[in-house]
Design goal:
This protein is an alpha/beta fold and 318 residues long. It folds into two domains: 219 residues, Spore Coat Polysaccharide Biosynthesis Protein SpsA, Chain A (Alpha-Beta Complex), CATH 3.90.550; 74 residues. Helices cover 50% and strands 14% of the residues.
Length: 318
């Protein structure tokens, strides 16, 4: 029996791309032979996206629509799609027509070979070389090095996941791109295939250099959660011991200045300044990590999603 597919597409101000995207998906999915559903998530669009996806859903009951009350971001919209999905295989993709639905069969072939996750790799990326492609290559190299999961293109939204791998994942920030890392850490088999990438025709890109900065910060959180989520005292306690040792060294230096050079403590402000700025920088990072833990406790202990749904169409209760 063929697996049911759930195509998950977050949308933000993509009014001119709705009909062409639906037509391409319908053509490709009709030839594959799998039962499928298309989940369109309106992430607080301010253009005509809302009306146009509702119109598509009225024509085709296989199209499910989720309208979020405001713009929560791509990751939260993706999470709404995952929570709505009923398929055995989940396939997220962008709604700007830069991902090609014709690549979906290749992703499914890899899953049929025994892989749990197949990630798309935009080998010939049609974006600005300086503003988009170069920062992306740096970010992908950094993510691969730190995570130990070597993929060429974490930023490609077109991926395929077996349901059991992705359904338990909770996503925050910009972390939808890190799902292959979570899956691999849980023992999933991960691979990638080359996919086509088309230049944007309609609408404007919502990505900028600030996205790379957010990704790097989220990567720090992912690595922290992998290493220290269940034993944070190893990190915070170790840091505390190091600082106690440093403070002891500075204390001994001050005593040396006092008794051997006859200098008052107030004559040596530099050690105090170094310690002050050193601690301020690192305490800021660690306070951020603690906040991440608290945020996850708040959401997951109460089963609170990171999004708010206004209404749905052709969907069961989430």
């Amino acid at each position: 029996m063929n697996s049911k597919l759930s195509i998950i597409i977050p949308l933000y101000n993509e009014e001119d791309n709705i009909e062409p995207l639906y037509e391409k998906l319908e053509s490709v999915l009709g030839e594959i032979g799998h039962e499928y559903e298309i989940i369109l998530i309106n992430d607080g669009s301010e253009d005509d996206t809302k009306r146009r996806i509702d119109a598509v859903a009225c024509r085709d009951t296989r199209v499910k629509v989720v309208h979020l009350r405001r713009n929560f971001g791509q990751t939260a919209a993706m999470m709404a799609g995952i929570d709505t999905a009923e398929g055995d295989i989940l396939i997220p993709m962008d709604g700007d027509l830069q991902n090609d639905p014709a690549d979906i069969p290749e992703l499914l072939t890899k899953l049929a070979e025994g892989y749990d996750v197949c990630s798309g790799w935009r080998k010939d990326r049609k974006d600005n070389p300086l503003k988009r492609n170069f920062p992306s290559k740096v970010a992908n190299w950094l993510i691969s090095k730190i995570s130990g999961v070597h993929l060429h293109d974490y930023g490609c939204s077109l991926k395929a996941y077996k349901k059991e791998i992705i359904k338990g994942v909770k996503l925050y920030g910009e972390m939808h791109r890190f799902i292959p890392i979570y899956a691999c850490w849980q023992g999933a088999k991960v691979t990638e295939v080359g996919v086509r990438h088309h230049p944007r025709i309609h609408g404007q890109s919502k990505y900028g250099i600030e996205r790379t900065i957010k990704v790097i910060l989220d990567l720090m959180v992912v690595k922290f959660l992998d290493k220290y989520a269940h034993k944070p005292m190893y990190l915070f306690g170790g840091f505390g011991l190091v600082n106690i040792f440093v403070s002891f060294l500075f204390f001994m230096m001050m005593l040396g200045y006092k008794f051997f050079d006859n200098k008052s403590f107030i004559e040596t402000p530099l050690p105090l300044a170094v310690v002050l700025f050193f601690l301020m920088g690192f305490m800021s990072i660690f306070m951020g990590l603690i906040a991440e833990i608290l945020m996850r406790t708040y959401h997951e202990s109460q089963n609170k999603p990171t999004y708010i749904i206004d209404r749905t169409c052709n969907c069961k209760d989430i």
